[in-house]
Write a structure and sequence with these properties.
304 residues; mainly alpha; 4 strands; 50% helix
Amino acid sequence: MSSVPSPAAPTLTREEWAARESAHAARVDEATAGHRGRRGRGEAHPIEDFLFSYYSTTPAQLRRWHPGPGVRLDGASGSERASWKHYRVVGDAVELDVDAFTVARGSAVEFIRGLLSATASRPARLGCFGLHEWAMVYRAREGDVRHQQVPLRLGQAATDEVVERHQIACSHFDAFRFFTPDAVPRNAIQPTRESQSALEQPGCLHAGMDVYKWATKLTPLIPSELTMDCFDLAMEIRLLDMEASPYDLSGYGVEPVRIETAAGKTAYMERQRAFSERSNVLRHRILGVLDDPAVRRGQPAPRR
């Protein structure tokens, strides 16, 4: 539908936005090629497919380029984009209808802003050593191990011993909810969905991967280049998540980070610290979009 243009919206020429759109599509195609190929062959990869099996965004959805708020795309009124949800036509141009998006998704925007802001404000807690993955298989019965296509690196009994020698302190509800029943009482924290905003902290690998999830939940508000930066970091974090896991992934060319040893703990923490810093950069970039005056205008008053 046609609408009054947003004030002082920068305009990209057709050549400019088409080049960005093409570059984004090529970036997504490269990043998802392995997953798409395996899907066509009916195969699975325990590391690289996680961002598609656990999160809901498909490669096709990820491939669709969005410029973010306050950007007008010249000459796009006759394109498919003009009919996309939360877009509007302004003369011969198309732009994101920020007001329509915030009316429809205001509660989600408010929740995500609060969660990302709270997480970024806390110091990173290091030293969990990825034991959440071990807790997911602790005293597991045969057939209940999550990744049944790969064996446990130390076997079940030795895996259980590693868990019993360590203090587990997982703060992430969406990891904790996959703990085996015997592992649940061993966790120093009992996170719930309701306590998520109060507990999440930037040292958590799963919270770092979830920055990608929150970017996709805010589509099309978040510029697609930022979403892909979140995707790339999430994929790197996922690799460490599984390198430090109890699984034997040598068949996939993956060397373990042996967190049951002192050297493995040190290696894990060094990478964990770097990921916490990088994930906070992305959190603040997303918050910068959410704090755009055009976005804030459509938001409800802060809760008190």
